[in-house]
Amino acid sequence: MGYNYSEGNSQQSNSEIAEFSGNAYSLGAYGGATWFLSRRLAFEANLLSPDFSYSKLKNDQVISGSNSNNTSTNFSLNTAGAINGLGFKIYFLF
Description:
Elements: E1 2-13, E2 16-28, E3 31-36, E4 41-63, E5 66-81, E6 87-92
């Protein structure tokens, strides 16, 4: 799980000022199965790993007395699992 907040401003000249702020959220869950063949040998398979992310950025800009506002929103849902991201691990325990 994660959260990111950013804000800032810049002034390139007396007639150009820009300010921005943004929030970003992310959440992921990872699951799998481990098979112990003996006390010292195990196989692990990553079966499911969905990720979710959401971000919103607001940008205000003033250029030569003209005001410009922009807001962008992004949403992403990613699922990697048995079909397109199957992963295996082998453990040798001593």
